Amino acid sequence: MKKFALILVFTLTAAWTFTSCNKAENTTDKQESVEFDEFEEASSEETFYRIPSPDEMFSFLNDKELKYQPELLNPSANADNYIDRKSKELNFGVYAADLAYTASFHQFQGSVDYINIVKRLAEDIEISAVFNEDMNKRIKNIFENADTLVNVTNATYYQIVNYLQKSDRNQTLSLLTAGGWIETLYVVIHIIPEYDENSATVQHIADQKLTFENLMLSLEQFQEDPAIKETIDDFKEIGKIYAQLKVVNAETSTKQNQEGNVVIVGSKSKLHITKEQFNQLKQKIAEVRNKITGNTNV
What is the residue range of 206's domain? Predict the structure, then answer.
């Protein structure tokens, strides 16, 4: 089997760019550098699927009117309900995304709650080694304001990815990625008030079609795993909606030739999502996400 590699599969660093939604606080804080082990160099037989991190997903949400909406997140109490490997690994990714969201809005207590949940699930899925003495010290230092939530969640991510790759636990990494992606998109698609054809956020949601295809390709490498096969089947319903999106001309450049005639010299295209398709996607994302988390809210 080809060695599996997922570039920027999922990161806890949504906080870096979510901060732009809440620039009023801590604008003079210096960002501490984060140290982590470098990823192993890819061999020629590795298969790469580019999936953006939540910070890339959230980077366009810079409207200061967008408020923190904790009701969108997976309640911490749900963690007790995840008893099998699939639900624990998927929801590890879900809670990791929620942790990034709370940290970016400087929600201290909420972030601490999600850190504790992530640590507990890490034990359940046997990656607790990530939380070594140094990492636990950094988490403790949050309480003393010696370290920042953003830096700690960022460092934790890199440790998790490195640990899973070096341990050849790529199925686990795939499920964590799927859980993180679905939660990120769930938050993004619900945080905006309504469909607007000219909204950059709506366009970004449409552009996730390629990201979704990469995610599915990464999962399909391990479809012999029953847990991943079930996840693929659930996510296929999202793919049916993305398949309906059409490519349209977004911008055309023209100039006059020597005869005075207007000549088209270039054009740009984009994926277009209609209001109906947007609402269908919003509903399906909620259905799949809530099936993973066990929530009933839409």
Answer: 4-245+274-293
